[in-house]
Structure formats: C-alpha cells, structure tokens
C-alpha cells in the first residue's frame, strides 16, 4: 500500500520536480496587475490636463458678512450669524466632467456660458469686480434708505468694457462707449441696461444713445446706434446685446460711512446679504435672532433682489455649514427647494422687504 501511494502522488501533474520547492515559485499575476495599473496611470496622466468645453460648479465657501462690512463708529453686538454663499468654478477635464454627472452637489455649465469666446479672463474679471462694486454701493443705498437716511446715488451711464465677438454689439459699440439711453429709457447704471432689456425678444431692434470719444483730443460726441438683439449665451430663449459693462463714475454721497472690503471676490450675488448686514449693524435689535443664516441674491437700488447662478450648489453649502435658514431670490426658489429637501428652511425673496418681513424687522 505504501508503494502504491507514493506512485500515485508522484504521478500528479502539479507535483514539483525533485529539488524544486513551491515556496520559491513566483506567481505571474502581480506583474500583470502592476502592468494594468501602470497603463491606467499613464492614460490618466496624459488625459488629465485635457480640458472639455465645460465648467464645474461646486459648493463654495461661506463668508461671514461681518468680515466684509463695518459701519464706522458702530460697535457690533450680534448673537447670530449672517453668511453669503459662493460657488467654486473650475474648468473641467474629462474625469471631473464625468464625476459631476453622478454627484448631485456639482453642476456643469458650458464654457461659453461662463466666458464667451473672444472674452479674455482679464475682461471677465474686470466685469465681475465691477458687478461686485455696484452690488456694494446698491446695498449701502438700499440699507440706508430703509433706515430713513437720504443718501445720494446718481448714475452717469453704463461704461462698455468690451464687446462679445460675433454678438449684436460687435462692431457697433466700442470699448469706453457710455450708454446713456435705450429706447427712450434713461440709463444711469449698468443694471438699467439689464432691466430695460428684460422684456425684449430675440430679433428686437433697440436704439441706444451713447457718448463716445471721437479723437485724440478726447472730445465726446453723443450718437445713436441701433442693435438687433441676438441669442443669449446663458439661455437660448433670452436676448443679448453682447457687452461687458461697468458703471461710469456714479456720484455718491452717503451720510453714514460704511467700510466694505470684498477681498477680491467678484460678482453681484452677495448684495442682499450685504444690505441685511448693514441694517443689522445700524439697528439696536439683532435681526438674526441668534440664528445661523445664509443667503444669496443681487440687490438693485430699488430694493429688488435678483436671481443668481449656482443656486443648487449654494443651498448645499448652506446645509453643510449648519445654517438653519437660507434666503433665496424668487427666480431661484423652485430649484432651491428641490435641493434643500427638509434639511433647511428656504425663504423666498423678491424684494429686500420679504427678507425683512421674515426677520420681523419693523
């Protein structure tokens, strides 16, 4: 029996030859796996820098409005917190674009909607800083007016920074033109251009009165031009002139000195929260009621709160920061409610009065 058993074992195909131990046989699969990972790594390294024609929108940081706004001579005693919300923009590569499709907190937008072709990053940055500057000035004007002051805020037109190539304005308007009238409606601020065109349709003709420097002596001529409105890059259903605008040296006299440092942040969407912060610092009662609240929305000098971009991401940022209330422009309300679920109270704001009503301001 012993001899038979030995014969059977040595006849197995997987039995090592005499003198060869299985302990020292090196398997091949780790090398194959390493090769696969190496190929994948090289492919990712090559493809990662390649950008697609989209930007990703992610929840940005929250900023405490009291860090940006200080009413000179007022000692702030506030128990609650007010934050304004931001969105982080990033030009996406293929992997980031794919990841955004499965992450509900991240959105995507065509590159053309963020920075139209032919517009330099410097021009876009200048316009965004101009929008922030007007937002701060409008916030001061609205806040002080609501508190019974009589501030002076006189606009002198909308200054053309640059025109968008192949847009309605291209070749008709020039950099440094000042728009002072559209279809008989006086233009005092850059926001008046947007408001005046709000009811227009694609293909409509609009007459603009502009001031233009005509020679090296810097003589200014007042001329009229006509533009046929084209398709807006953000929304194909809306019309667009195709200009980047700034305010043209408004005349400002405020009876209360307010120091506002926007810390190189661009865009107009902090306007509503700046307004509330100024009022809070000038009011004996704490408007926050001790709550941690956040918000977003533009502010016009008549108190209207305008819609903003990236509302879904901003609502998620407010939730992640532990805010219990978020103020949202009426134009973004439905999207904000969908993003919020039951995790935060969403307050619909059409004018600054809606926010003040919620805060029980009298």
Protein model, in words:
By secondary structure, the chain is an alpha+beta fold. It has a domain at 156-249: Pdz3 Domain (Roll). 31% of the residues lie in helices and 27% in strands. It is built from 10 helices and 22 strands. Strands 8, 9, 10, 11, 12 and 15 form a 6-stranded antiparallel sheet that branches. The longest helix is centred in the middle third of the chain and has 26 residues, at 121-146. The radius of gyration is 30 Å and the shape is globular. The chain starts with a helix and ends with a helix.
**CATH domain topology of the domain at 156-249:** Pdz3 Domain
Amount of helix? 25-40%
Identify low-pLDDT runs: 1-11
* CATH architecture designation of the domain at 156-249: Roll
Question: What is the β-strand count?
Answer: 22
Strand portion, in percent? 25-35%
- Average predicted confidence as pLDDT: 85
Number of helix segments? 10
Question: Short summary of the structure?
Answer:
The chain has 362 residues and is α+β, with helices and mostly antiparallel strands. The chain is 31% helix and 27% strand.
Overview features:
about 350 residues, alpha+beta, Pdz3 Domain, six-stranded antiparallel sheet, five-stranded mixed sheet, 10 helices, about 30% helix, about 25% strand
Task: Note the topology.
Elements: H1 2-10, H2 29-47, E1 51-59, E2 63-64, E3 69-71, E4 81-84, E5 87-93, H3 94-102, E6 107-110, H4 111-114, H5 121-146, E7 152-154, E8 158-163, E9 178-182, E10 185-186, H6 190-197, E11 205-213, E12 220-228, E13 230-231, E14 239-240, E15 243-247, E16 251-253, E17 258-260, H7 271-281, E18 292-295, E19 298-299, E20 305-306, H8 311-320, E21 325-329, H9 333-340, E22 345-349, H10 352-358
Parallel strand pairs: 4-18, 18-21, 21-22
Antiparallel strand pairs: 1-5, 1-6, 2-4, 3-17, 7-16, 8-9, 8-15, 9-10, 9-11, 11-12, 13-14, 19-20
